[in-house]
Design goal:
It contains six helices and no strands. By secondary structure, the protein is mostly helical. The chain has one domain (5-139): Four Helix Bundle (Hemerythrin (Met), subunit A) (Up-down Bundle). It is elongated, with a radius of gyration of 18 Å.
């Protein structure tokens, strides 16, 4: 069995991107907490602490959480494709998904106009649907 490892590269790039967003979020959160003199209270939930943060800091936190949701389906799909095979179109779709998630992150972290962000997210989701269907077809 030959594993198509090149289809895993977009997945690894998205993992590294997610970790970059984590760093962006942590730096912003630490700065905000320090500037506000906020004390960490273990009797409060993470969401309760986050409500006190400036909106721009919460956007990055929300984006980090977003990158831990739908992309899990992307990772699973690419793992299937690595095993059953992939086409050049699949690789383009995978990179398109990663590119759109990066654009989505910048948008959410800097502007966060929900209507615009929804369009970016929807297009990325459509690419993922196509990838998943193509993986299913290749697997059967």
């Amino acid at each position: 069995m030959i594993i198509a490892t090149d289809i895993l590269i977009p997945a690894l790039v998205l993992v590294l991107w997610t970790l970059s967003i984590w760093l962006w979020m942590v730096v912003g959160r630490v700065k905000a907490v320090s500037a506000m003199g906020q004390k960490l209270d273990s009797s409060l939930t993470n969401d309760e602490h986050a409500r006190e943060l400036p909106l721009a800091v919460r956007w990055k936190l929300d984006n980090y959480h977003n990158l831990l949701e739908q992309p899990i389906l992307f990772y699973a799909t690419l793992l299937v494709m690595a095993v059953v095979g992939r086409s050049d179109l699949d690789l383009w779709l995978a990179w398109g998904y990663v590119g759109l998630r990066v654009v989505h992150s910048f948008h959410q972290g800097l502007r966060n106009v929900i209507e615009e962000r929804f369009v970016i997210f929807s297009i990325a989701s459509l690419l993922l649907i196509v990838l998943a269907l193509r993986a299913l077809i290749a697997a059967v």
